[in-house]
Amino acid sequence: MNFKQILSNINAGVILISTANDSYEILYSNEWIEAYAKKSITPGTSLFEAFELSQSERAMLNRKVKSALFLNAPSFLSAEHEGYLIPITNQKITRADTFPFMQQDAAIMPYDAEKQQVALIIYDFTSLMISQRDLRDKQQELEEAIKELKKAHKNLAEKTALIDYQANFDSLTGLANRVLLQDRFERAITAAQRTQTLIGAIYIDLDFFKPINDTYGHSTGDKLLKMAGDVISLSVRKSDTVSRIGGDEFVVLLPNINDLAPVIKIAENIINKLGHPFTIGDHHLRLSASLGIATYPANGDNPSTLIKNADIAMYHAKRIGRNSYQIFEDYFAEERMAQTNLEQALRKALSDPNFIAQKGFSVVFQPKVKHLEQGAIKTVGVEALIRWAHSEHGVVSPEKFIPLAEAAGLVSKITQFVFHESCKHLKLWRVIEPDFMVSVNLSAYDFDRPNFCQELLETLKYYGLPPSAIDLEITEHNALLVKQDNYRKLNDLRNFGFKLSLDDFGTGYSSLSFLAQIPVHTLKIDKEFVYKTQYSPTDKAMLESIIKLAHSFKLDVIAEGVETIENLEQLASFGGNYFQGYFFSKPLEADAITVRLQKEKEQRF
């Protein structure tokens, strides 16, 4: 066995080199040491280039090689004694990955002194090389693992923060949500018990937000909610918490107060600031709000009771006219309970297919008259009015149950019932008076039904009546609530031949441009407006202007609430030509209308 065979079989790292020139050409190397080469090793490859040795490393190696050749005896490389390279175990900068045997005690053995050939050997290199390789691999893996751990920790922290934010804050407005509000209330109550102070709760509901959302779209609605939240936040103290608890409802928590004064001041501030116009794109929108106030401990000793009672107070503010605040009173809760019971009774009644006959609903009709020459009058039509006589609640006013039906999504059933009853009686009345008409009130929510117009036409067809026999009334307030997309249905109804009236004019916020746009035939002036003209010269002048304005738009005018001869004469002098009110008749049963028409016909002939 020759020397190369011996070297290839020993458990060591071996390189056989020629030092005849400055490049130190590699003549042979075993596989163990080749794993550390930076370049592929073939016979003739420079040792310096293969392992990318630095100038100091080259100088040190060259000195040891010359010593071995001169003495013709082994020369040793010792990292510990030479100090050029430090073992990796010292955790200092090292070039171990460049030339590993220079970290360990290695031998330079003369191979052929005449040819200036030497062998570089690291004894037991196999185990040493594996150890060093593993150390580097483990160190690299550890470094990568640390990087990944830091990255994962950062992501976890971000996700935890996001989850915490979503759990405690409203995603749309950035305000506190119910969860955080509950926590803040509990902390405030604990502090109030310790300091013997009060806590205020303000429940805020935006008035008529839904029609704005429906008309201008959810994107505009969301922006308006966010802007409203910002306005409320700017209206309170830094120590207060503003929360959006759902939809268009907000709650303000006011801790550490001594009396109601700061709560009332903030409530008034909120109402005032929300009343300023909001500009979103090309739209200039106006809001109002109904607020309810409750205090700890007078109106509740826990968060849920406080919020509930503030809600009840808010509902009372909304019921008596909106755009105001109310401070909770015990009887508010009784009223709210009665209202809830009434709503449940209404739901039950309207969910019954036979509710008309069994649940106390009926329709009465109030005459509409035309003022003729020499003081004569003629009944030209009637307005259909629904009534509800409940077995427990007694006679319930439409002013109470119609809003409940609208809120519950049940008003369409009432409209259908009234329309059918009106058509049934109108068929007979038109035999007596061929041009006789019935007015039926509509809700803005009726227009949400996809087949609304078709349903009306089918009912008329069933009773053999033309659309021109029906006057469809929609209040000024409801007209403003009709979604933009549903205005097409108003035009469709007019094109089908229905008469359209704008009811309760003078009670809402419509402009003259709105009056010119809505496709109505008749303007009905609200009875409250008529009543005020008896005492207010300004209202009197406005009424006269409205009647003249309506005529300029080629609209008929019907004045409601005519109760005295003075009302009639004044309205007639302003140019009014159609009237309705108790001066002429209260609402009557259908049979009484039939008798009235027959008597008027007999008197004419």
From TrEMBL:
UniProt keyword Metal-binding, yes or no: no
Origin superkingdom: Bacteria
Every GGDEF domain range: 197-330
Recorded GO MF terms: catalytic activity
SMART domains: EAL (SM00052), GGDEF (SM00267)
Cofactor (UniProt): Mg(2+)
EAL domain ranges (all copies): 339-601
Keyword terms: Coiled coil
Coiled coil: 128-162
Keyword Hydrolase: no
InterPro entries in alphabetical order: Biofilm_reg_signaling, EAL_dom, EAL_sf, GGDEF_dom, Nucleotide_cyclase, Rev_trsase/Diguanyl_cyclase
NCBIfam families: GGDEF (TIGR00254)
Record-given protein name: GGDEF-domain containing protein
Lineage: Bacteria, Pseudomonadati, Pseudomonadota, Gammaproteobacteria, Thiotrichales
